[in-house]
Amino acid sequence: MYKKIIFFIYLAAISIASQWPSNDLPQMLFFPHMDKLVHMGMYAGLTFLLFWAWPKYFTGRRQLLPVVIVIAYGFFMEFMQRYGNLGRSFEFRDEMANALGFIPGWIFWRWVSKPKKEDKKAMNDGVAQE
């Protein structure tokens, strides 16, 4: 249950950060387009937390559902920036960075959720004994 709570807190944080007026945000760009890496990182975190909060649901063919969720949510946030009248604007490159954030988030989930060597050995020993 706590995993789902963490997911929804993170979702709220992304929503608030995405709608915050841009002139109130810190301008800490160390190189051009650094904000795209920030977008990608935020949505990588969203992807990871989706899989982490619902690990049994997003398996098999449903493993593709988070792609749709991440892209749709990123598009919705960009759309809200355009029409939310908070001094933000829709930017296609931001949406692409949001969508591409799925890839590192999914890779990290696969790495973290992979059975450890000792777990595999225990499973194989259990099968061999039966």
How does this model look, in words?
The protein is mainly α. It has one domain (2-21, 36-118). The protein has helices at 2-19, 34-53, 65-83, 92-100, 102-113, 117-129. 22% of the residues are buried.
What is the topology?
Elements: H1 2-19, H2 34-53, H3 65-83, H4 92-100, H5 102-113, H6 117-129
Name the overall outline. Answer: elongated
SSE class:
mainly alpha
Chain-averaged pLDDT = 80
Low-confidence stretches: none
In N-to-C order, the SSE pattern is HHHHHH
Our measurement of the CA-to-CA distance between the termini, rounded to an integer number of angstroms, reads 34 Å
Fraction of residues in helix:
over 70%
Question: Structurally, how many domains make up the residues?
Answer: 1
**Total beta strand runs:** 0
Radius of gyration: 18 Å
Described by strand count, sense and barrel closure, the largest sheet is: none
How much beta, percentage-wise? Answer: under 5%
Features:
6 helices; mainly alpha; 130 residues
Provide a quick synopsis of the model:
With 130 residues, the chain is an all-alpha fold.
